[in-house]
Amino acid sequence: MTDLDAPEPSGALPAKLRRPVMIAAFEGWNDAGDAATNAVEQLSLGWDAEPLAEIDPEAYYDFQVSRPNTKLVDGVTRMLEWPTTRLTVVRFPRGHQAKSADAPAGDLPDVILVHGIEPNFRWKAFCAELLELAEQQQVASVICLGALLADVPHTRPVQVTGTAPDPQSAEQLGLTTSRYEGPTGITGVFADTCVQAGIPAYSFWAAVPHYVAQGPHPKATLALLDRIEELLGRPVPTGSLAEQAAEWETEVSDIAAQDEDITEYIHALEESSEPEVLRPASGDSIAAEFERYLRRREPGDH
């Protein structure tokens, strides 16, 4: 993939954006391996996004759980950075046409990026506030990104499941529909809020191997960006993610090769009879795997 031409120079933002697409990801339960929020961060950096708005965190976060950070400015002054949800915007030069035959004709839409933290309180009010911002900017569609721990091997292409506003869009994107039923996070709640308000909403979920849950997970981030590129019909900035993903896979393989049981487990996942079906890893399966690993370790290894 190649990066899109640079956005228009910074300056006063126009009052009205051009059919913006909103792309949202939230830290926490919805973001295994930091894959989803890292995708939004990559877009923000690659497209030189400008601040648009942020949500007042006071009503939504427990600051004993999500504490504010203090930072030094110029080595002298301290500044507080509160946990919250921030929106940035990217406006592109007129005249850029879609690279996909399925994309609408004319100038491509602007992009609003949402980098959030799953709130501790008042989820409905939180989503209503985000929706109000989307409606103020006349957002044409929303893309929600997520990542989940699953029984998948790190050596295979990242499985991306998701939803689309209609069956035709899902078929065009080749989306594998998740069969998951159960608790959901703020990503699912916000997507449903948009649908109920009449805003078309897509969701893309990358599968992260549960035995390498610690982020970052560049391979899953790259898979999500590939889906965004396909949907928008425009190149997206991926920076060095392809190289990072290759290095990550090699490193995990080297570590796994040192443990015979883990190697056999990965081979079993690779030979699964249903590779196209995403199977979220349960808490019990993760705990059992970890306990089995601890039992294999000698006391002197701790």
TrEMBL record:
Organism from which the protein derives: Nakamurella aerolata
Name the UniProt record assigns to this protein: PAC2 family protein
| Family annotation (Pfam families) | PAC2 (PF09754)
InterPro entries hit by this protein: Proteasome_assmbl_chaperone_2 (IPR019151), PSMG2_sf (IPR038389), Rv2714-like (IPR008492)
Q: Please, which domain of life does this record's source organism belong to?
A: Bacteria
